[in-house]
Structures are given as C-alpha cells and as structure tokens.
Amino acid sequence: MTKLTLGQRLRVDGGKESFLENAVANALLGREYRALFLLPKESEI
User: Fold this and answer.
1) What ranges in the chain are assigned the alpha helix state H?
2) What residues does each domain of the chain span?
3) Could you name the domain of life of the organism this protein comes from (predicted)?
C-alpha cells in the first residue's frame, strides 16, 4: 500500500473548534462576509 500525504497533519481542539499551533489553517475556518444589500430610501432616489 502506498502512503499518500496531502499536507501537514492537523491537530484539532474540539472545544474551541480550531486547529492547534496552525494559524494558517485557523484563518481558513472563517471568512469576512460582504455587507448586506440595502434598498435605498425613496428620498435617496
């Protein structure tokens, strides 16, 4: 059997729902969402 390595081995902190000692992996857990779409007020049209 051939061993396949896809990258670093990640250790997970289940309580915090984050990765231990891996800031790059933690940065991928969330993202900045775009602002909500708001309709302009009738007076602004």
Assistant:
1) 23-27
2) 12-44
3) Bacteria
